[in-house]
Each structure stands twice: as structure tokens, then as C-alpha cells.
Here is the input.
Amino acid sequence: MPAAARCLAGVALAAFSCTGAPAWAHAPAQPAASPPAAAASSAPKPAATPSDDAQGGAAAYARVVKDAERQAGLFVLYRKEGRIGLEIATDQFDRDFVEHVVPANGVGGFGFEPGQMFAQAARIVRFHRAGARVAMIWPQTRFLATPGTPLATAVDASTADSVQALLAVVAEDKASGKVLVDLTPLLGDTLDLGDALSERLKSDGNPQGAYRLDPARTFLGPSKAFPKNVVIEADETFASAKPDALDTVADARFVQVRVKYNISEILATPGYVPRLYDDRVGYFEDPHVQFADDSRRDNYLWYILRWDVQASDPSKRLSPAKKPILFTLDGSIPVEYRAPVREAILEWNKAFERIGITHAVAVQDQPSDPAYDPDDIRYNVVRWVTNAVNDFGAEAQFVWDPRTGEIFRGGVLLDSSLVRSAKFVDRLDVEPSRALDEIVPPPAAAGPQPWRSEPSYEQGMLGEFAFGATALALEGDGMRLDGFSRDLLKAVTMHEVGHDFGLSHNFIAHNAFTARQLQSREFTARNGVTSSVMEYAPINVWPKGVSRGSYFQLTLGPYDYHAIHWGYARVAGAKTTRDETPTLARWAGAAVDPRFAFAGDEDAFYNGHAVDPRVAPFMLTDHPMVWCDTQVGLARTLIAKLDARYPQPQAPWSDERVAFLSLMRRYNLCATSMAHYIGGEYLSRARPGDPHAPPPLTAVPRALEVQAYGLLDRYLLAESAWHFSPALLNRLVYTEYMPFADFGYDPPARHDLSVAQLAASAQNAVLGYMFSPIVLQRIADLPDKSPSGHTMSLADLFAWTQHSVFGDLDAPAAASQVHRNLQRRYARLLGRMATTPFPGTPYDAQALARHDLASLSATLAHALRRPRIDVQTRAHLEALAADVTRALETRAVIPG
Here is the structure.
């Protein structure tokens, strides 16, 4: 075999040089057509002997790196001929670093963004010598034991690390101990972006439309070296044989994604003491299992994510921070928007000052130093990104030590669409999101399935801005929109910086304030519109004639001060994590006060698991049902005024369509949220011993459930709920150049908006929730946990819905299309429940469904005997009767 062939066949396939010639002299500029990892694994075993250069000394090492570009930092990088070598010093082997892998570019808003954190946000990585190669190892960090003890040996034997890549040794200087390895194996799809692209862009499930990494078009891109980290970019191309439209790239068949591997020193604080998580206060957590202490039944350690912020002199009441958190405003942020971003970041100093630390947070503009780079891990950077569509709005970015939970780098991505769309709300969809011909409750067997997916805060805020802008324009009471976009930007930035400090969402924060307080400018300027910036707070708009407070959450609320105190205040006398526990538990007990209450994501989105109706995004006041009744009424009043205000002369008709949809968004949000009270329970995380602690679960009283169902009936199920002016409906058209789907020209199927479809989408969502197995189970169980008559029963739910949907069958007036469709869908739901119920549906619910079908059959027979029925009504009643008869006469075949 020729020497060149032997070289390519062996481990030196990925090496810079296989001979004594200058480095990379014979290396191809592009990677092989097969994936690098696969090519290396298929290499014949005998060829695994390292090259002479890899075995040599200082002279051989110098030959390999000759004429290569040298980048010195935490590691030394060498670049030549499209290859990158990483120099590992002796003391860098088997040492812990942090590896953070993120995409360096997005695809115009279709699925992921530059710098966006994935599930693999940060991992410990170690370089371990494995003969002729170096293994990049991701060690497990979840299971803990004291090093050097028998338990540590047991943990090592019971757990497994992961190997990210095997790197070929290109050269070695035995005298100094430094080793040069080839980074080509980093060209694999570490972030699973192929599946991310396929999932985001698929339309018909065609397997040829899937995206997969194309090694023939994948190469190593730029690299950077800084004192505390190095960044290596892998320019990965994802190919599809039959892609869907993606107009934000030149050719959708080949999508290039630049992936940044950021390997950094762990900038941890010596002696940092982790703090244990408490579910009464909302922090992101880093879970571990420890085996060193068997005196506790629970051996889980849930460390919170937080910075090490300490006062330089703890003996003083107020002292500057020993190590301030300095945010850098990247030069990509437009000058006119830097002030609200700066104000939002510095707002958090107020919370740290309450615990005796001044100047904990600082802000600087991008340094004029030409060496500045946002990839330098020493900078906490706030950056501006641009997308063709409004996909995410903003995102917090932070890196932490996976062993302790200590955050040592933060930042925020801000999407330009956030302020542009706030000024010109050009796209707001309240489009049908479910199958319109049937109601599909989520099956219990698959676990809780949300009927309202988790909204993006920023996307929701754009909708809230649109609602407020439309409301103020229609009311014509002199209120102006000046500064709205800046206020919106400040509110969103405060929220994301809160995430940077480790805080999670809090979706019960609105429950702290009354309607009267929210109508006071003085009160809202001091406290905000909810008790926390970590809430998804809607715009604070009231009907004309009612006094008004601030529109947005522009300051920290009481909960934010409480959360920072709990997470960052020093516990006097505590030297270990366990020492802090009694004091922290006492502080967390304040959560029984609505101002300091916490409820996270798992209880905020309306699936069967989310049990507490007080926990919800985009709600206000301590009585959300009353607030929603006001808001729905306001929306209906404003819809009646649309024709008089929209569109302006020479403006497109779509302006009125957007205004209508912005009002319908608030209408639907509030109308559907009432379903959360049906079978609801108030959830408390208070612990025994907390002052005034309620029991963990308390059923929502039947009187409130009756009130909530009355609102559902009036605003969602009733015949009159979906009546709009014919003149208005004929004006709600789109403009040809409006990008309704993705980017570019992709018009909707119809020019108008279908009221029947809008109604079906909202009605199906509510009925699908109330009749899902897990909610039916809870309603069936509640009477066993409450005094007689205190809660609703399954019989109540079926009786109320039967009356709402079919109560007008004996009425002389013909029903509208919206109501006829509702009757057909609900009858099918009853039929499904009686004949082929979803797993977990209570037997009592199945029995009630059959009972209601039998009752409906008799009602329909009587209605069809009524004289002078118009043809459409008779056809509808006959079809409905056929649906009911088919369900009642269904026979199930049971295998023997």
C-alpha cells in the first residue's frame, strides 16, 4: 500500500500531517464525504500507530506547527489549510472545563436563534489521553460522593460518562508535555440541529423533507482564543432532498448553521457555598444525588442557579459588591434603544441594595478596545438580533458550573422584532389551531397534554401591546402611544435579566394586587402591575372612564425583592449548605402572603395537571374572573367601534383585520381561561409550621365554578357570543404582501376571516379541556374531599353543558352556523365518550354521556315534529339525530 494510502487509512486521517513535511502539506481542504466520526471508527486497527511527528520531540512539534496561524488563550489554537489544532498542556489533561455549545446563526426566526441555549446549555468537559488519541469526555455530574471514599468508588462503578469525540494526536513535545490534537471530529451534529430543522419546517411528514448533516459541505470555520476561553466554529450544512419553503436562505436544500464550541475555564468562586432549592421560591435548579450523608431519607440536592454576589464588607449595613455583575451593551443594539435596556438592567440593583449590597449590577457600553469580542467569556453581553419573522423576542443566556449551580456568565438576546412589531403590529393571528370537525381531549395515557401551549413572553407581550394600542386608538380619550415600544423593551429586558440571576417564571404574581390598586398611577409606579417582573403581565388597560395605572411592569415588584433576598442574602453564621437550611426555610415561609407567592410553569398552562385557576399567564388582579369579565366586555365594546376608526385613508384594509384580531386575542384569552375554574383546586406549597399555612389543596367552591361556567356560556358557547356586524366581517381582509405563513408570499386559503372557524377553535379548546380524562377524574373525586355540595359534580358539568349547547332545540328561531356546528361537535364528543372513551375516562362520565345522548334523542324527535321548520334547520336536526342514534346503537366487539 502506498504511504499516502496508509496515511489516509489510519488514525492520521484527521491529522494535520502524515509525514515529516511541513504541517498540513498534504491534508485536504475539505472533510471526507462520510461523517468524521464514522470514518475514524471504521479505520483498520493496525493503522492506529501515531505518526513520527506525534511521537517526536520539540523539533518535530515545531515542524508540524510551522507557518500555521497561532491563536493563544486558555488553549493555544493552530490553524492551517482549513484545519484547527488544539494544544493541550500537561496540566490541562483530566482537568474540568466547561463546554457551551450554541448555534452562531439562526435561520431567520424558524426554530432557533444565534446564541440560543438548548437543553445542553453547559457541560463539564475533560481531555483524557487515550493512547494515540485524546478523548473529549463529558463526565456525569449528577451523582456525588466525597472523593477518595468507598462511596466515590461505588458511584464511579454505578454511573457512566459520555465521550463527545476522539481527537487524533498530530504532534507531541515530550519534553514539555504539550500535545496537539485535530478538532475535525467536532463537525458532528452535537446539537441535533437536523431534527430541529426538520421539526420546525415539516408540513406533510414526507421523509425526504428531513434535514440531516451533510459532511461533504461541512467544515471548520473561524476560531478565537481568549484568556479564559476558546471558541471553535463548525460550519455545518444540513441537506434536505425535498425541503419546505425557507426563504431566509439562498437555497433551502442546503442550510448552513454555524455552531460555536465554547470551551472555558470554570470561573467559579473559591469557597462558593451552593444554596438548596425550595419550591416556595422560584429559581432554576441544578439537581444532584448525594451519597455521602445517609442520615436523611431524601438524598437529593437541588442547588439553585445564582451568581456569587457578596458584599465587600459584610459587617456594614451597606457595602459595595465584592465582584459586581457587569453587563456589556453590544454595539449591535440601536442607539435609541440602549437607554431602556440599561435602565432595565440597573433596576435590579434595588433588590440587592435591600440585602445590603450596593452596585451589584453595572452596565457598560461596548468597549472601544479593538480586541473586544462578545464571545469573550469575561463579558456578559446583551445583543441585538434580526429575524424575518417574530419567533422569540428575547432570551436570557447564562452559563453555570454544573457541579454547584454557580452562574458565572450571563447575557440577553433581544430580537429587533420586539420594538418594530410594537410600533407596527403587522401580524396577529387568532387562527384555528385544532381540528375543527371534532373535539379531541388529551388522552390521560399520554400524560398531561396542554391545550394551550406555553406562550413566549415576548410574543404574548406583542399581542398585549397590539390590544392596548387598538384600545387606546378606539377610545380616543387623549391617551398616546409615545414611549410604548421603549416601555415594552424595558419590561421584557427586566424579565430576561431576572432569568440571568436564576429566577424562574412566577405565574401567580398577579394575585397580589386588587383592581383598585392597578388603577392607581402612584401604586403601579411603585409596585408594578403584578408582584413580579417574572410574571407574564398583560397590558393594564381598563374601560373608558376608569382611572388607570402604568400600562407595563416597569419596576420590580414585592416578590422580586423577596426572591433576591432568599437567594442572595447572607445567612449569618452559616458555613455549609446545610447550615443555611433552617433560616432559608423560615424566609420561604413568607410565600403564604400573596405578595410573595410563587407558582411556576408546570401550573400555568391549561392541561389537566395545572390545577389552580389563580395561576395563569397574562392575567391581572386578585380576582381574575372579575377582571376577565371586564376585559371581554371591553373587547366587545371596542369591536363595535372598529369600522369608525379603521382603516385610515389610503391605509390597507388589513389594518382593521389586525385590530380585530388583537381584540379577539384578549377576548379568547379571558373567555377560555374560565374553564380552568371547572374542577379546579387552589394549590399551596406552604409547609407545616408556615404562618397561616393553608392545606396543600383546597377545592374551588361550587359558587365560583357556577360563575365561571356562566361566563363560558355567555362569551363562548352561547348563540349570541359570535354575532358581529356584517359590514365589519366584509372588511376583515388581508393585504397581498402580508407574510401570513413563514416568509414571503404565502396567502391564507381565504380572503376573509371565518367566524365559524374562530369560534370552533376556542370552543373546542375549552370542551377538550373540561372533558379530558384527568379533569373528569378530578371532578369525580372532589366530592370525596369536600363537604357535601361544596364542589360541582360530574352531573353538574354534563347538565350545564347540555343546557348550553342543546337548550335552544325547542326554540322557534333557527340557530346560526356557529351554534349548529357546536351541537354536532359536542354530540360526537358524547358519542366518543360513551362508546370508545379515552383511557382514564371515569365510568360515571361514560354513563352520563350515554344518558345525555338518550335524552338528546328524545329532544330531537320532538323538535323534528315541530311544524314549519326551515330546510337548513331540519337537515341539521336530522343529521344530529343520526349522529346520536349511531352512538346509541354502537356495539363493541370484545375478544374472547
User: Anything to note?
Assistant: Confidence is low (pLDDT under 50) at residues 1-50, 422-434, 443-455, 739-743.
